[in-house]
Amino acid sequence: MRWLIVFLLASLVFSGLNSWLRKIGLGRLPGDFTFRWRGREFHVPLASSLVLSLLMGLIGLLI
Fold this sequence. Notes:
single chain; alpha+beta; two-stranded antiparallel ribbon; 2 strands; DUF2905 domain-containing protein; membrane; transmembrane; DUF2905
């Protein structure tokens, strides 16, 4: 259950900071999917969410 919450929070952070994170390379990793359906573009950042979750977990362990 904890990983689901972490994944959800990472997805929210990713969607909020999407333009800035794309400049540093997140959002274009293998495993990040972008598709267009009915004129709208959808992003599914699986790999980027995993990287952000691991980074936040390491920061949490250090604090």
